[in-house]
Amino acid sequence: MSGRTGSDEAYVLDLCDEYLGEAARRQHRFDWLRGDPGADGRRAKLPVDGYWPRRKLVVEYRERQHDEAVPFFDKPERTTVSGVHRGEQRALYDARRDTEIPLHRLRLAVIRPGDLGADARGRLHRRDRRADLAAIAAVLAPVLQAWPGDEDRVVDAFRSWLTEAGWVVVPPTDPYTDLEAVRDGERIIAEAKGRTSEPGIDADIAYGQLLRRMAGPGAGVRYALVVPTSGLRHALRVPEHVRARLGIAVYEVTANGTVTEHGG
Question: Among 50, 85, 121, 202, which residue's Cβ finds the most Cβ atoms within 10 Å?
């Protein structure tokens, strides 16, 4: 951390802390976010720039070398454990963060020098704190305010529906599962999405989460994708016969909390 004090990244994270009213865990490492295996077969944990657990928010500050070739940082003459030079590896790992962080039910905000008062080299030399704080707010607010709490509403409505239908909600086998319930020897595993600005991406992510949790044939497990009405058509893009084959049913939660099953 000491080597980063005074850096543009530290300055940006300070602004995020100020806007959010709490301090981030800086250079935090998740067990599920790892690099490619080295010569010893080990996969190092990849850091994220800032993580606010209560907000379920990760912020990445991506400087110029993340978006364009910079030989000083890329070291094109050196090959990394990924079999490519450092610049290409950086792009691979950024893409991995972009995929894995939302998959693990965390918000991700990416801030770039161009979002603030950067010079032609992408450096934040001016550091107009008032203007830069407004720029930070412009990036973070949509991420934090995109239908806040709607996923909780969807989960609560589906939980009530399950209970009324005789299911008993139990602690999930996988801690990232939204809901798990049992009834008469059967188990249902549910992934829920609230109303957001990217319902198509959310539905695709939810399907991926369900596929990763699928048990073997004859395990007596059913799967549910639970979405608000605004996300229904996106969830139904997967054909019904495919959903039926996988044992995935789509459940719609309306604005008044009514739950409707759409097959699977």
Answer: 50
Full domain range(s) for residue 229: 150-261
Rounded Cα gap, residues 51 and 259, in angstroms:
34
Distance CA 214, CA 253 (A): 23
Closest CA to 25 of 5, 53, 2: 53
pLDDT at 259: 95
pLDDT at 1: 38
pTM of the model: 0.54
Same domain, yes or no: 159 and 222:
yes
Distances from the Cα of 179 to the Cα of 115, 156, 174, 201, angstroms = 38, 10, 10, 20
Contact 172, 190 (CB under 8 A): no
Count up the domains in the chain and report the number.
2
* Residue spans of alpha helices (H) in the chain: 8-20, 71-74, 86-103, 129-145, 150-164, 199-212, 232-235, 240-246
Q: Which residue positions in the chain have pLDDT lower than 50?
A: 1-3, 66, 71-74
CATH number at residue 29: 3.40.960
Give the model's pLDDT for residue 121: 78
pLDDT at 141: 84
If we measure between CA atoms, which residue out of 26, 48, 251 comes closest to residue 159?
251
Q: Distance between CA atoms of 153 and 230, rounded to whole angstroms?
A: 14
30 with 113, same domain: the answer is yes
